[in-house]
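Hello, quick one for you while I still have it in my head. A protein chain has come my way and I'm curious about its shape. Can you walk me through what the tokens say about the fold? No rush at all, and the record is pasted right below.
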Amino acid sequence: MKTKLLILLIILGLAACTKYDEGPKISFRNTHHLLLGHWVVSKYVVNSIDSTEYYLDHRACVINIYHDFDDYFNLVNCKDVSLYNTVGMAGFWLLDKNKNKIVFYATDFENYWSLFNTTLFIKRLTKDELFLETYLNQNHYRLELTK
């Protein structure tokens, strides 16, 4: 009886320990490794308005998150080359200690000047999905990315 109660408590405890608001309930994969890869925006929402079509028509950047002696990222294949007056952006990224926020520190490809840093809240992270949210200039942004 004690064994069954212990197993039940462990299962309930794991179910209550969701790392991200939108799941998954449990993951045995390392957050750092789940983030690595070639991500494409599948949905782009600004202030609860689906702006995916606009994003795909005007920007459509691909986000590459990778590890090479350090944690780097780059934005490539952007349709809007006037974005920050550069062809693309690169920089490095960090996870916070709770692994539910990611901070991107960006520079431009040509001059390596610092362009911005932004903190994004991870809402969902699986091997194929990454949902991010942030507030910037009094606007709420949500990016849903797929591999």
Summary: The chain has three helices and nine strands. The helical segments are 2-16, 31-35, 52-58. The domain at 2-146 is CATH 2.40.128.540 (Lipocalin).
